[in-house]
Amino acid sequence: MDVEDPQKLATEKTPNPNTEDDLEEGEIVAGGDDDSSLKKSVSLPYQPHPLEHQWTFWFDNPSAKSKQASWGSSLRSIFTFSTIEEFWSVYNNIHHPSKLAVGADFHCFKDKIEPKWEDPICANGGKWSVTLSKGKSDTFWLNTLLALIGEQFDHGDEICGAVVSVRARQEKIAIWTKNASNETAQVSIGKQWKEFLDYNETIGFIFHDDAKKDRNAKNRYSV
Question: What CATH class is the domain 50-222?
Answer without folding.
Answer: alpha beta
